[in-house]
Amino acid sequence: MAMAEFGFTLHATDGGARRGTVTTGRGDIATPAFMPVGTAGTVKGLYLDQVKGAGADIILGNTYHLMLRPGAERIDRLGGLHGFIGWDGPILTDSGGFQVMSLSALRQMSEKGVTFKSHVDGAIHEMSPERSIEIQGLLGSDIQMQLDECVALPTDAETMKAAMELSLRWAERCRVAFGEQPGKAMFGIVQGGDDEKLRVQSAEALKAMDLKGYSIGGLAVGEPQEVMLAMLDVVCPILPAHKPRYLMGVGTPQDLLRSVARGVDMFDCVMPTRSGRHGLAFTRRGRVNLKNARHAEDHRPLDDEMNCPASRTYSRAYLHHLIRSGEMLGMMLLSWHNTYYYQWLMAEMRRAIEQRRFADFSAETEAMWEAGDIAAL
Amino acid sequence: MAMAEFGFTLHATDGGARRGTVTTGRGDIATPAFMPVGTAGTVKGLYLDQVKGAGADIILGNTYHLMLRPGAERIDRLGGLHGFIGWDGPILTDSGGFQVMSLSALRQMSEKGVTFKSHVDGAIHEMSPERSIEIQGLLGSDIQMQLDECVALPTDAETMKAAMELSLRWAERCRVAFGEQPGKAMFGIVQGGDDEKLRVQSAEALKAMDLKGYSIGGLAVGEPQEVMLAMLDVVCPILPAHKPRYLMGVGTPQDLLRSVARGVDMFDCVMPTRSGRHGLAFTRRGRVNLKNARHAEDHRPLDDEMNCPASRTYSRAYLHHLIRSGEMLGMMLLSWHNTYYYQWLMAEMRRAIEQRRFADFSAETEAMWEAGDIAAL
Q1: Above 0.95 for ipTM, yes or no?
Q2: What is the pLDDT of residues B170-209, one digit of tens each?
Q3: CA dist A345 to A28, A33, A257, A266, A341, Å?
Q4: From the list B70, B79, B332, which residue is nearest A321 (CB)?
Q5: I want to staple A174 with a disulfide (CB 3.0 to 4.6 A). Which of A98, A146, A341, B189 is the partner?
Q6: pTM of the predicted model, to two decimals?
């Protein structure tokens, strides 16, 4: 059987919300999809069997982390990221640009690319758009991202405009560097901060490049949710309906629900695992802080309607004890539960879109979050 | 069916080595047995399914940790330690005495008991022999330990003698406090440091109390291995053949092998999990430090003859990367592998005793450790 081509099929829409399938050479992705983040080659605190069992079709790897340690060429020699970590489904990688901004020291931008100092060992690295695509190829990434310039908000209009325009030129260079790769894709990234006009220019220019998918970057970086949603309202209608749309680094369950309503297909965020490590669970009834003393003698599970051992088998009292004691198992269980809950929420959204009841589903879901956790014992 | 009585059956001996079964109300324990340590209600970094799957019949809980957090009465209200953590096999608890010595501040000993300050919140606690047994009962422990006085080595002969004698008086008080509990047992603890005469006195006096089992304490606290083995050579022949013998807090794989040869039936130690968290694996070919650069591009697993995913599914290169990056998954996998290896080693020892080839097995095992790891790629 020939390798499947990269593609996107739209099965149903309901208002702005879209139910689709992204096809890759390594398997299909049911959308709307949430991609667990395997930062440095591991979804923190989880076995990949648990990630797959939770329902994830695709995971994400961070180019910045992996190029610094263990190194892209080394991963290539070890069978690519799929072989290295033991995941046979699709993998999406970012370009490294965002984390160069947020984690490295001594960043220097030029038309050619970015020079930065590793936060791991202080070594100086250069990354051009072409090198970013080369690295993502060495990693064996199925869905690759263009290199873009990410600027911290707030910033002045000129800086934002210049970064957006540089990102467009880099998108074209990445498109050429990527070429045609069976079963794989390279996405362009819409930039422009919180400036509607810049966002429109960015989206229109990328659309004209006829890329295989479109990411929306530079959001969920501290701005209010309504600013992010306003940008989606501007950008999504411009993007072609038959290409997948990926909102990078987002977000809370509510962010996901409201962004799907506006036409986003794919998401990634460290929130389920990072919050889990800090004792915070996301549930059908909103956020539950397991550090809270109210759970100390609560024999009930987090949510016995979730089909995940972490959610239904362990008591809140035990989770409370583990988190309070700083035990790894507490972090493992809450990361697992949260990963499961995020996948469950996406599956429910997909079903609601198929049934054309997404607005009702959203209202019910938000009301249940608002009503809050079960009463204390 | 009536609950099984606590008991010990000796199936075979080979030299000093013994192959037996400890029977408890919560299930049988094949001996020689290694008991993974669930310090604060969790075997660090492992799911209990993994502990059971590795072959462990019994795990250990630490009275000191659990009485301080979450508290013995609280655990009792939450279904005992078995219900709280989700383990339905036998559980052994220590008395708390050893960790009062090693972890708490402001320890004050008297005939009545010990007063100490919690390392968690600074609260003052009193623990008498009777309270230790009460706490272990609240935890629901199947095999309980007498409270003993543990003195740090080296110490003078008078201090050692006084501590040993106090421990004997406390053994009697614990025996009375424990009474008769169907399916459960309370073990006395042989003390006396590295003094053969004191060890003999302690063992003889405890034997006269006709307890259900005997622990050997105060060893593996920094003394050379030959001192520990010399004490076993003195103590084991005194202890009754039809009662189980438990060497507390021991040890390396070699410690286990050499102690089983001298007639020890049960062990516990944090070494498999603690070493695993620090990147050290115990294997059939000796110790393997996964931090070492030689593993950086080694695609081979730790040991593909071990029937454990952590040992056979993940490459050394990936384990090396995870440990170097401080990722939880690295600690989880090496703790799992080590726990599996320890259980595998005990099972092999049990088989060798049944086949009356324990001396040959020991020689082959030590030779293989000595020969060391597979050659670097």
Answers
A1: yes
A2: 999 999 999 999 999 999 999 999 999 999 999 999 999 9
A3: 19, 10, 9, 13, 6
A4: B70
A5: A146
A6: 0.98
